[in-house]
Write a structure and sequence with these properties.
Length: about 250
């Protein structure tokens, strides 16, 4: 099995890399931190390719995709996992650059990760294109306008891609995590119900990817919460979540 994975140097990405390497997969590992990528690759069983890059750089991603395909052939699975979460407030002009960076990473980064592999997968007639979204994309959350909007955009993009590739043999998998214990959530000072360890989340993600499930919320309890959130009338939703906790501003994890 051949897998190309972004955001591989920590959190969910690292856990997925460890899970798939233990199963014997050959990995293309992409992330910004060169040193962490090298450490991870050295600790994994097997031999893997490292691509130090920022997913906001489309040219770098295209080059990495071409190199991986040249060395190992078209991957069986591509996972667009890289993402950042930054607290933002609507009345803070200083937060607009952060807003732009979140979209560049979480939305454009996802599209730029998956696009270079689409033609090869379609030509072969098989493969999995996977995007990691978030329950934060289901409804807008206070103090997380950039993150919620970017994840909502990711969900819609993946749905569009799924329909576009219908009948091609290429499956598009949207994974919608709730709270996962990673450096990104470690700074949250508010309660995080049903939080999962990253290794357990990776195992559940891998099962969903293998099954080719089009849309999955993990853990399932957060799927129930997500459905309830969709059903709440705006006045009720606003009253409840206006009192909710907020991620600190200015964090880039």
């Amino acid at each position: 099995m051949r897998i190309f994975l972004t955001g591989a140097s920590s959190g969910i990405g690292e856990a997925l890399a460890r899970n798939y390497a233990a199963a014997g997969a050959t990995l293309g590992l992409a992330a910004r931190r060169r040193d962490r990528l090298a450490e991870l690759a050295a600790a994994l069983p097997g031999t893997h390719l490292c691509y130090p890059l920022d997913v906001g750089d489309g040219e770098a991603l295209r080059a990495a995709a071409a190199d991986f395909i040249a060395r190992h052939g078209c991957p069986d699975i591509v996972i667009a996992n890289a993402g950042i979460s930054v607290g933002t407030l609507a009345d803070e002009a200083d937060d607009l650059p952060a807003f732009q960076r979140v979209f560049q990473t979480n939305v454009m980064g996802m599209a730029q990760t998956l696009q270079p592999f689409v033609a090869a997968m379609k030509a072969r007639g098989s493969g999995r294109l996977v995007g990691i979204a978030s329950v934060a994309g289901i409804r807008g959350l206070p103090g997380a306008g950039a993150y919620s909007a970017s994840k909502a955009a990711s969900i819609a993009y993946l749905e569009s891609l799924r329909i576009e590739l219908h009948g091609s043999g290429v499956k598009v998998v949207t994974l919608v995590p709730g709270y996962i214990a990673t450096p990104m959530t470690a700074v949250n000072s508010y309660p995080m119900p049903f939080i999962l360890a990253a290794d357990e989340a990776a195992r559940r993600f891998a099962r969903a990817i293998e099954g080719g499930t089009s849309y999955t919320v993990i853990p399932w309890q957060m799927g129930v919460v997500a459905k309830l959130m969709r059903l709440l009338p705006n006045p009720v939703f606003d009253a409840i979540f206006a009192r909710g906790g907020r991620k600190p501003r200015g964090l880039d994890l």
